[in-house]
Amino acid sequence: MILFYAAGASSQAPHILLREAGLPFALERVDLAVHRWSGGDYHEVNAKNYVPALLLDGGDLLTECAVILQWIADQAPDLHLLSQPGTPARYHALEWLNFIATELHKNFITPERHGGVSANFLSKTRAGQEQTRIHVSPRLGWVDQQLDGRDYIAGDHITAPDAYLFTMLTWARRLEIDLAEWPNLSRFSARMADRPAVAEALSIEGPPHALIERQ
């Protein structure tokens, strides 16, 4: 099994969850600026040209972060990274995955890409970064309210949505959005960062590309 990733991209979430699940996997880093990986043209792997993509041992390729997270969780049922199918808890966790994908992830992605796929998925301009803050801040505030009195967002232990939310919070920090405004989110981020699987994933990926602000 191979996870195609870029440092600091949304692929960080399945990277974290793979380590939480203890599944065997290999990593292949993708240079999104030129769409290349160690095997050549990334477009030949994933025609969407973005990460994450998870190549399964049988040859199937999974894309889309929320779907990959579900697949990973289902491979380690004893860890309860997602509740059993058919249960209300399962669908509440899927609510979270969809909320993070549509209300946070997509609102972080800069319109400066003009529909293209590049390494600069976060805005590099002051005006663009301010627009991102305007869009994501109310949503982060809502998540902060849901975390009141809770350590994790979909249960009393880590589940798939937590890995996704943590990754989005790293994007917030890169845009200098101060999480101190939302104490529950701030505590959640620190709690996640202390997990060995998270620390290992961040260490292996290394720093993401720099955001150089322009007028």
Automatic annotation (TrEMBL):
It comes from the Bacteria. InterPro entries: Glutathione-S-Trfase_C-like, Glutathione-S-Trfase_C_sf, Glutathione_S-Trfase, Glutathione_S-Trfase_N, GST_C, Thioredoxin-like_sf. Signal peptide: none annotated. Pfam families: GST_C, GST_N_2. Residues 1-80 form the GST N-terminal domain. One of its GO terms (molecular function) is transferase activity. Residues 86-215 form the GST C-terminal domain. Keywords: Transferase. Transmembrane segments: none annotated. This is Glutathione S-transferase. It comes from Sphingomonas sanguinis.
